[in-house]
Structures
1.
Amino acid sequence: MIFARHSDSRCQRGLTFVYRYGFELDAGQLLGALGPDLICAEQLWGERKVIIGILSRRFEVQIGVRDGELRFMHRMSATLDQRESDRAGFEAALSMASPQPPPESS
Amino acid sequence: MSNALQVQMSSNGRRSLGGEALVYHCNFYNYWLQKTILLVDGLDMGGVIHDAAVASAYACLKGLDAGHYSSAVKLFAKLGFGLMDLSQIDADGGTVTTSVSHYGQCLSAAAGAEFARPQSRFDAGFAAGASAWGHGRMSCGFEGTVQACMSLGASEGKISLRGRKPNSEFFRSYRLDQNNDGPVPPKTWGGLDQAAVDEAVARLQLVGNEEGLIPRFGVMLTQHFAHFYNRLSFEFLRRMGDSGMRIAGEHLLLDAGYRCAFHTFGGVFLSPEWESLMSPVVASKSDAAHAMASIASTLGWGRWRLMEVNERRAVMRVYDDYESLGYRSMYGQATRPVSFLAAGGLGGLMNLLYLGDILSGPELDSAYFEKVFEHPEAFTVHQTQSIAMGHGFSEIVAER
C-alpha cells in the first residue's frame, strides 16, 4: 500500500477519509483519472493552495490539505454501495498517480 | 438571482441576507438546542420551532424581494439545509419533499442513537414560510406537518402543507441594522487583524454544496437565521420562567453552548484549515484562544474580544452580540444576561485549551468530553455585562 487511510471518526461518521501518501502527487493526473464529470477548483487556505475535485452527489476530494495529505468526502446522497465503489475507484486512481518504480532489468 | 443570494457581511461582522441576520452553527448545536428545548413536556416548543422557521424564512425571502418561487429552494440549499422541492405546492397547500436534509440526516451523528421523533420541524416551518411568501399569504398562512422524516429511516422527507387562519400575534422576525451604533471593539491580539481573518474565512466559501450541505471542520455547518435560534432559546426561557424553572432553563442553554464549543471549536482546532490559517501566527495557548475568538467573530456571533486570558481565567467582551441584540428586539430590555451561547463558548474554549490540551490533537469523542468538561477543575462562567440589559457590550468571565 503506497498510502495510509483512516476514517475521520468525528462528526461526519463514515463520510470522510483522510489519506496520507509519501510521494510527489500529480494532482492533475489523479483528478483526470476520476472521470470527465469531475468539477475542479482551487481554494486558498491561508498560504496553502488546496485543489478540489467534486463529482456531483457522489464525492469530493481535497488535495493538499496538509503536506502529503488529502481528504476524500462522500456526499450524503451517495448510497452505501455507491460509496464503497467510489472509494475503491479513488484508491485505484491514487495508486496509479504514484510514481511507478523503474522496470527491473533482466 | 444568485447575486441576490449573496450574504452581506458588514465591517462589524454582521452577516445578513434579505435583512435577516445569519449565524453559523453546526449539526451538534442544532441537535443539542432542539433536544434541550424539547426536554420539558407541555411547553409546545415543537410549535415554536415550526413557527420560528416560518417567520425567518418568510422575512428573508420578503427582504430579498426575490420575485420567483425557485429562490426559496436555492435559499434552502445555500444556507446548508439541503434540497427541497416546493413544485407541488399551490395556493391551497400540497406536499413538499426533501431529498437531502440537514435536520433529517445530519443530527444522527450528534445523537449517537436512533430517534423516536422526527427531527425536521425546521424543514416543515421553512416550507410553510416559503410557500406563504410564494403565494402572497401572510407569514402564518400555511402550517407544515412532517409526514416522513429521514431521521426515522424514510428515504426522503415529506411535509404536508395546509392553510391556516391569520394570526396577528404570530412571531415576527426582527431586522438588524447594518450600521454599528455600539462601541468599537478594541484590538486585543497582535497575531492577525480581524479583517484578514474575515477575508481568509470568506475564501473557504462556507456555503451549501450541490446537495445543499456544508461539510467543513469535521461537522455539518448551517448558515442559519439568528432569529430562529434566539426565538427558540428565549421563548423556551420565557415558558420555563412561567413554570418557575427559568434558572434551570438558563443552565440547559449554557450546556448547549458548551456542546457547541466542544464540537465546533474542537473541530476547527483539529482541522487542516486551522493549521493553514492560524498555525503560522499561534505560538501559545493564549494565542490560540485569541485566534479562535477571531474566527468566532466571523461566524455572525458578534465580535469576540479576550481582554484577559491565562490558564486560570479569561474575560471576554462580545460586541454586537447576536443573542443580546435578538433578545432586546423581541422581548425588550432584559433583567438578566442572555448570552448563553457565548458563555458556553468561552467556557468550552478554555476547557479545550487549558484542560484538554486540544492543540496536541486528541480524539474528539465522548470520553474526551467527559474528561475535560466534567473535570472537577473545569472552568465555570458568569456573565457580568449584557447588551440585552443596556450595556455597551456583553462580558463573560471564565474561571477555575
Note: Chain A has one domain: 3-8+25-96.
2.
Amino acid sequence: MTALLVGLFGIAGALLRFAVDGWLAGFPSPRRHWPWATLLVNVAGSFVIGLSVGVTAVFGPEWHSALATGFAGGLTTFSSWTTATVRLASERRYLAAAANILANLLLGLAAAGAGIAVSGG
Amino acid sequence: MRAPLAGRAGAASTTDSGYGWRVWTAVAAGGLLGTEVRYALGLLFPDQSGELPWATLGINIVGSFTLAALTTIWIARPQTAFWLRAAIGPGVLGSFTTFSAVVFSTDQLTRTGLPVLGLLYLGLSVLLGLAAAAAGWRTGRVLGAPRAFRGAPRGAGQ
C-alpha cells in the first residue's frame, strides 16, 4: 500500500518537475542559461518535505511516506543540480556555478524550516 | 519547438507544453522506477539515529555520476531519441536522486543536537556529489567520443 502511494506521488513529482522545466524553458531570454527550474523545484520540494512532518499524526505514516519520499523526493533532484553545476564550471562560469550551489542550499534549508514551522513540527 | 495544433489529430499527439504523450509517459515511467528504487533502498538501509543517512548519500553520488556521464554522451550523440533521454534523465535519475531529503536530514540532525554531523552530511553530499558529477562528465566525454578518437583503426585523424 505504502509502496503504491510512494510510486504514484513520485510520478506526480517527476511530471511536475518536468513541466516546470519545460515551462521555464519556454520563456525567451537574452541571458545565458542558468538552472532556474531546478532551483524552483528543489525549494518547493524542500518546503513540502518540511510540511510532511505534521502529516503522520493526522493521516498516518503511509501518507507521510507518500508526501516526503514520493512527492518531495520525486519533485526535487540532486543529480540535475550537480550536473548543471559541473556544466557551468566546464563553461568557465564559476560565479554562476557557485551561485547555483549556494542558492539551492540556502533557499532549500530555509524552505524546509518554513515547512516544518507551518506544520507545527 | 512547439508543433502547431492542426485540428484534433495534432491536439491528440501534442500537449500544451509542446511535448508529445510519449515523452510524458516516458517521464512518468522513469519517475516511478526511480522513486521505487530509492524507496526500496531506504527500507533496506534505514537511517540510524546519530548516523549519516548513508542510503541517500550513496543514491545521490551514483545518480550524479550517471546523469553527468549520460549528459556528455548525449551531447556527442544528439540523435538519441528525446523520449528515451527524458525517461532516463528527468525520469529515472531525477526521481532516484533527491535534494529535499538532504536538506531535511541536515535540518533534523541539527535540531536533535548533532549540528556537526548535519554539516558533515551536507558537506559530504555536496562535495562527493559534485566530484561524482565531474567524474561522470569526463567519463561520458570519453565514452561519447567518436570511435576514431579512441584509437579505432579506421578513420583515425578525421
Note: Chain A is about 80% helix and 0% strand.
